[in-house]
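Chains adopt folds. We examine one example:
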Amino acid sequence: MKRSGKESKAHLNRDAACLVEDGRVPLAARMRPRTLDEFIGQPHILGEGKLLKRAIEADRVTSVIFWGPPGTGKTTLARVIANATRSKFETINAVLAGVKDIREVVARAAERLKEHSFEDSQRTILFVDEVHRFNKAQQDALLPHVENGTITFIGATTENPYFSVIKALVSRSRIFELRSLADEELREILVAALNDEERGFGGLQHEVAAEALDHIVQMASGDARNSLNALELALVTTPPGKDGVVVVDLTVAEESIQQRALLYDKDGDIHYDMISAFIKSLRGSDPDAALYWMARMIRAGEDPLFLARRMVIFASEDVGMADPLALVVANNAADATRFVGLPECQFSLSQACIHLATAPKSNSTMAYYEAVAAVNSGADDEVPNHLKDSSRDKEGLGHGKGYKYPHAFQEHWVAQQYLPNGLQGNYFYKPGDQGFEKKVADRIEWLRKEQEEGLGKGGAEPRGEKS
C-alpha cells in the first residue's frame, strides 16, 4: 500500500527512532570521530601545524600519553590514530588487563618485527586506556618493550601522569594535555549529532529549542560524552507529537541533565587546584570567590571536614594575630561540622569562610620558622640559670636563683633575660600593622625597648627592677 508523503515521512521518522533506540550503542559512541577532520576541539595540540597533528598525518606517532578530564577526546584521539596508521593497533583497558595481557601483546609485536623488520605495517601501537589504573608491576612490565621499540605506547588517563605513571615511562613518552571543551565546541558536536543521518538523529524529525541546547551545553561542563548522553536521553524519551516531530524544549533538557557535571577528583590535580583557589581567595579577602570554591567542592562531594581543617590552619597561618577570634570561629565551625554534619553544617562553614575572608590578615605566625632556624643553627641552647626549675635542684646548684616573678612588679612585667645567651637580641616575632595586631605591635615595641634598657647593652644578667 502506497503511503502519502506525510505518512511516509512519519513512517521514516518512526523507523529512524526505532533504529536509534534499538541500536544499543550510545549516541556518544556512535558519534565518535573517525578522522582528524571530524575531531572537534583541542586546537592547542591538533591545530594546523601542531606537532601531534603532523605526527598523525605522517603516521609517525611516537609513545604518547593523553591526559585530561573525562569526555575531552582521549580515547577518541587514540582511535583516530588507529584509523590513520598502517601499524598494527592493539588496545587494552588497564582496569581489566594484567601483566599476562601485556606479555601477549608484546609477543605478537616481537613476532611481527622478526618477520617484517623494516615495514611500517608491522609496527605495533599499544593503546592502554586508563593507564593510571596499572600498578607499578604492570607498568614495569611495559617499560622495556617501549624502550627497545618493540611497541609504541599510547596511554590515556584522567590523572596527572607525573604522579600516576612511573617516571621511566613518562620520560619515554610525550605528554599531551587535553582540555575541557569550550561551549561553542560542545554545541558544534551536538548540532552534528542532530544532523547526522548515519550515526546520529538526522533521520529523526526533531525540533530542539535553542535554550534547550544551551542548557545541555552549560550543564555538561566541557564533557562531550555527557552532553551527547543528555541529548540522546532527551530525544529518545520524548514521544513525537501528532505531526511526528519530537520537540525538545528547555523543560525536557532540564530533566535530561539536571545537575551540572562538576569535574573533581578527591586526590588528584583538580582537588589540589580547587583547594588552592579556595585558600588564595580567602587570603585575598574575596568572600564571594571563597564561597564559590567551597560550594563547588562540597557540591562535587568533598569531605566538609577537609575544608573545615583547612580553615582552622588558615585562621592561624594567614589571619593570626590580626584577628585572634578567627581561630575560635574556624575551630567552632570544625566542631559544628563534626557534630551536625551535612547539609546543615554548611551554615557554619559559610560563616567561617566569610569571617576569614573579611578578617584583617597577618602571617606573623611564620615567626615560628625563624625560631626553628635558630634552633637548627646550633646556637648556644643552654637554659639560663635563673630560668631553670628550682624544685629539682637537689644538688644545690642554684637553679632558678635570680629569677624575678613578673607579677611582683608594676605592670606585671620586669626586664629579664629569657633567650639563651647566644641568642640575646634576636627578634623572631615581627608584628604586622593590621587589625588587633597593631595594638600588639605597639606593646611589643614598648616591651622590647624597656627590655633593652633594663638589661643593658649585651648584658646577660637581669637588672632594672621596678618597685
